# Entry
Amino acid sequence: MIDVNVRQGGKIPLYEEVAGKINYLIEQGTLRPGDRVPSIRNLSKQLQVSINTVKEAYSLLEDRRLLEARPQSGYYVCARLTELPAEPVVDRPAINPAEVSLSSIYQVVMRDLLDPNLLQLGIAVPNLELLPIEKLNRMLAREIRRFPTQAVSYSLPPGNLRLRKQIAQRLLLSGCTLGPDQIVITSGCVEAVVLALRTFCKPGDAVVIETPVYFNFLQMIQDLGLKALEIPASPRGGISLEALEYALDRNPGEVKACIVISNFNNPLGSRMSDEDKLRLVNMLEEHQVPLVEDDIYGDLSYSDERPSVAKSFDKTGNVLLCSSFSKTVAPGYRVGWIVAGRYQEEVERGKMLANVATASPTQLAIAEFLANGGYEHHLRSIRRVYARQTAQMGDAIGRSFPAGTRVSRPQGGFVLWVEMPEGVDSLLLYKKAKIMGITIAPGPIFSIDGKYRNCIRLNAACWTPAVEVAIETLGRLAEEQLAAS
Amino acid sequence: MIDVNVRQGGKIPLYEEVAGKINYLIEQGTLRPGDRVPSIRNLSKQLQVSINTVKEAYSLLEDRRLLEARPQSGYYVCARLTELPAEPVVDRPAINPAEVSLSSIYQVVMRDLLDPNLLQLGIAVPNLELLPIEKLNRMLAREIRRFPTQAVSYSLPPGNLRLRKQIAQRLLLSGCTLGPDQIVITSGCVEAVVLALRTFCKPGDAVVIETPVYFNFLQMIQDLGLKALEIPASPRGGISLEALEYALDRNPGEVKACIVISNFNNPLGSRMSDEDKLRLVNMLEEHQVPLVEDDIYGDLSYSDERPSVAKSFDKTGNVLLCSSFSKTVAPGYRVGWIVAGRYQEEVERGKMLANVATASPTQLAIAEFLANGGYEHHLRSIRRVYARQTAQMGDAIGRSFPAGTRVSRPQGGFVLWVEMPEGVDSLLLYKKAKIMGITIAPGPIFSIDGKYRNCIRLNAACWTPAVEVAIETLGRLAEEQLAAS
# Structure
């Protein structure tokens, strides 16, 4: 059942291993900013690998803005211009669940998304130029010719079988051994999460979320009449398990679900370690709280090692894994999926009641693309671009923003979380930036009570001269605010 | 803005007018079953129309099983073998809103839908052979070549503009003058109704429905934690406005929405008159209860006159009109829409939170099909087939089912409501039929409390020798039950 592509995807190439070693030395402080790293020839001898392998490794580290080549001189560790955003304070007790009552900021931000005259740095959409548009559309056209009747007929839940088989095969890379009957096709990842929540939450129930959190989760929670219990998360390891345990103990029976973006979190960029994923799964199982795991960015790891999912540690069916192809292949195709664990039947029924089925033609096309479109190859190429671009934008922020600004350094995905000095008001920045034709996602929409006033989330999916200028503009606007305060 | 196709669609062809006159004479009893109707030559002289026009008119009436040609003899009025289902009893007071707690029947019935080995007479899906599969798929392939980037990008709410313009143009035929900005594209009609309900109903609120009612509405109501208030409906004119008024007066403030399938109702086949539509709209406006109007069968009128919608009488934005292309063009494309009236903004937001957007490629294809695919021509041809087939199945039921069986005689759509003598149990019939490889929709799933035990709904979209045999089988099974009782 496992095809060759999938196997290859799971193996770390040698150059990636070499890059990992240098990265480790930098992270540990053995190699410091400005240090010269071993020459290609020396490292090749030292590690007994080919010259080309070291070249590839250094080029990867260059993409990630960890090394820079200086002509006639060699490779040097880049100056790190910015620090990571501050770790959250987790020693204060977690607050009680609260009703979500979002101000009008969100509405305004959402409306701006439709404005084609604005440079959209506020929305987490992939770079259109990195999508396999021609190939995918060609496959769509071919598949509906091959299966004309299937294309116009309902693909009732759980959805197209070939697509589910392909997804099940790919899930091996995330550590999951699942059959196609454990998957339900949805119209995107958002729908998957909504179906999950609607399965086990009644109005008034509390849902654990990370903070800061992807703002659509807050909207969903409000829309479903639920309460939110915010648990601090760190830009490195994600949700604080200590705070979570404290909160679960303090609110027995009240919490009915926990939503986590475990890999390359939006907005923080955090990635949970395998140990933490295991701990999280066990903790929630113990408290009988289902985990809704959103892994939409998992395939966009900057290294070729695809991170595991918390679902892979799930022995009881308590974890519901949600994802889609909206960040990697085609947002407009609206093809996502959920592994619903012990809630499979309810989720299938919920899907039927929500909109009967997901569109058949786009399911056919994604299935074919996964089977014969070179999805793994496609991922390898876009990963490198996103790695380079988030590093480039991070550097630019370091150069243009006020001193003391901190920026996340994600190892996957394409969003950056920027923490500016306390004096900068991101809502004011939002307004000023819009006048300059730029939209950003202001920090307060990522929490239930207007926290993160000095933070913004930026989309680093595109790195163009216009975006470069926009970052300079944003930096200048932030400086002006600080100077005026 | 009105294109020529749309205008033509609104005009009744001459042969249709002639057929209408004969139909009137039959309905009034001037021409009775077995009577010979005027010869083609005579009628042509009498009405001053061409021979061909009369031929076309008679052929249409033959399709509808109102006339039959006898060789060497002429046309005769068909013997009507069955009566209409009984009118509901409406003099009893409407009951209070009740929680919907559906038994497992529904689950079983739904699961059977997925079984390709069963002859599906229980599900209201269109005849695949009548869908414009080749043309539509070809248009899809062409549109994504024309708009490759749009095809893979989000088509955020309210959805594809060209599609909304086409829908707005067609709505003229239903009596509505609306702009594209008053329409939101949805993933089918079910999603449109759910989005509407979720906009103004909180758990515990009551929703008025007709009884018998399309079973998915009951599922939705249960799923949203709402209560249902059933109002009797008649197979001719639909919901009883007297009973509705009584119920609204008795439950002031408790009812938060009313769902009605105004044209060619599923399951009853009823069509509300324009007067009743106007009264309904005014009554609900007066009680401040939004009307969710499902018009999914409206385009499948057996005459070329497209019925109006209640929405056309709405002056305040209190009516939300829902429909889709699932019954006429392509269920699997999942393209529907809602005119959300004064709730436009909330519905757009709800759509975004449910699944961000409807798939872009299928929106592009349907827009092109409406603009250049001959939708009106397509409708004219499938209407005749459905008219003929529902009549054929109605006749077959009259021949095969126990004496006293009544069957609806819809003027549009493709479902039949069959009321058998009291001694027949449709749930038992369901089980026995399944053993014979046939599924039907048993009456009790169309109500909250197991009413319509002696009724079934049948799909008359396909009329094949296998279906003909199936009807005979069902009739025999019903007879056996009666004999054993």
Remarks:
- Chain A touches chain B through 59 residues (CB under 8 Å).
- The longest helix of chain A spans residues 375-400.
- The domain at 100-130+377-484 of chain A is CATH 3.90.1150.10 (Aspartate Aminotransferase, domain 1).
